[in-house]
Automatic annotation (TrEMBL):
Residues 67-406 form the Aminotransferase class I/classII large domain. Its EC number is 2.3.1.29. GO terms for molecular function: glycine C-acetyltransferase activity; pyridoxal phosphate binding. SUPFAM superfamilies: PLP-dependent transferases. This is Glycine C-acetyltransferase. Keywords: Acyltransferase, Transferase. Pfam families: Aminotran_1_2. Its cofactor is pyridoxal 5'-phosphate. The keyword Hydrolase does not apply.
Length: 420
């Protein structure tokens, strides 16, 4: 296999290779990436996530401090003393685990409070919520329960992998990213052909940081008798006057049927949620396999409850985040780099050539800046980029260090957009 042009996807199913043979070839590919300094994956962190992290990258001989842009802890709440204290109190009161699935003994008072808190957060008075152990399963397990062979999922092509996995039991049609004409064609063709039609989109998309045209998508769905699900994992806490996300920005909070999201970003923990009509939520509590057969979240989830409260109690973190976003974006564009159309805390530097993107990631590490080179299949082959997440707790000095590093990399190898 030509490792120079290979991607992770090439190793999913190698013809004629059994499990161990595939693993062996893949191991050779990983070694090739390490030898070329492109192995920016599964690096060993020895400090908590934050704007600066100690990481063993293999670039230096020991753990080194890096300015970090790999965390989606947008408001820095994983290190907030009140969030930590709430998690500790949860453990002290309930122990370290739930011990069972929610259905058969694993539903505790802190789960009930969390479900009430996250439902109330979105100010949809008639709706309730269900929580999952990951944001991934909030999408995948919910969709597997709701959509069957008689139904249709209509998916923006840029949605998260969890949505695609959740739709494996149903019919699916994808439309071009944020392309409402493509969506309308599918809705027209599907009219009266399926029992349930569900349009599934993100509020903010994880690779480009752009927003969905929510108003038009919701109007089209209603026109053609479809429901709408919005996964706003990257919008909540970042967008909106009070941090309620993309739906708040567009004043459409009550106009969609399902809101899904994660506790692993703004809310500084792990887990996911679905907000919907109470009857649907009750259905999921007894029909979703993840709810029936998997243990529920640990008492440390009490920290999430405090993080939800802090969004309203300490709005300065979101304001500081936007100061950092605007400063950093301007710095990158002044250098001449392509950051696309991001409207969020996700800031890509689009390079285009996968090998050059890997080299850029290597040089950034050498300069003390920890980023994520994103390659196919996470993005199209022509859309390789360095992806960064901004935090409220980044200092101006840290942002300047990153900007200086990007300027150096650009001077050394020209990472202005190279389309392939």
């Amino acid at each position: 296999m030509d490792f120079a042009n290979a991607t992770f996807k090439n190793f999913e199913n190698i013809k004629g290779h059994d499990i161990y043979q595939r693993a062996e070839v893949f191991g050779e590919f990983l070694q090739y990436m390490k030898d070329n300094g492109h192995m920016n994956y599964r690096l060993l962190n020895s400090s908590g996530c934050g704007p600066e992290m100690y990481v063993n990258t293999g670039v230096h001989q020991k753990e080194t401090s890096y300015v970090s842009f790999v965390s989606n802890d947008y408001l820095g709440f994983t290190q907030h003393p009140e969030v930590k204290a709430a998690a500790i109190r949860g453990i002290q009161e309930f122990g370290t685990g739930a011990g069972a699935s929610p259905l058969i003994g694993g539903h505790f008072s802190y789960h009930e409070v969390l479900e009430e808190k996250i439902a109330a957060f979105f100010k949809r008075s008639k709706d309730s919520s269900i929580i999952y152990t990951t944001g991934y399963t909030a999408n995948s397990a919910t969709l597997m329960s709701l959509l069957q062979k008689e139904d249709l999922a209509i998916i923006d092509m840029a949605v998260h992998a969890s949505v695609y996995e959740g739709c494996i039991l149903t019919n699916t049609k994808t439309f071009l990213h944020n392309h409402t004409e493509s969506l309308e064609r599918i809705l027209k063709e599907a009219k009266d052909k399926y029992r349930t039609k569900l349009v599934i989109i993100d509020g903010v998309y994880s690779q480009d940081g752009d927003m969905a045209p929510l108003k038009t998508i919701i109007e089209l769905a209603r026109q053609y008798g479809a429901y709408v699900m919005v996964d706003d994992a990257h919008g909540v806490g970042v967008l909106g006057e009070t941090g309620r996300g993309a739906l708040e920005v567009c004043d459409l909070m009550k106009e969609v049927d399902f809101i899904t999201g994660t506790f692993s970003k703004t809310f500084a923990n792990v887990g996911g949620y679905v907000i919907a009509d109470p009857k649907v939520i009750d259905f999921l509590k007894f029909q979703s396999r993840q709810q029936i057969f998997s243990a529920t979240s640990t008492p440390a989830a009490a920290g999430i409850i405090k993080a939800i409260e802090l969004l309203d109690e300490e709005p300065q973190w979101r304001l500081k985040l936007w100061e950092n976003i605007n400063y950093f974006k301007k710095g990158l564009t002044d250098i001449g780099l392509d950051i696309g159309i991001t409207e969020s805390a996700i800031v890509p530097v689009k390079i285009g050539d996968p090998h050059k993107t890997g080299d850029a990631g290597k040089l950034l590490l050498k300069a003390g800046v920890y980023t994520n080179p994103i390659l196919y299949p996470a993005v199209a082959k022509k859309n390789a980029r360095i992806r960064m997440s901004l935090m409220a707790t980044h200092t101006k000095e840290q942002l300047d260090k990153a900007l200086n590093a990007f300027e150096y990399v650009n001077q050394k190898m020209d990472i202005t957009r190279q389309r392939v």
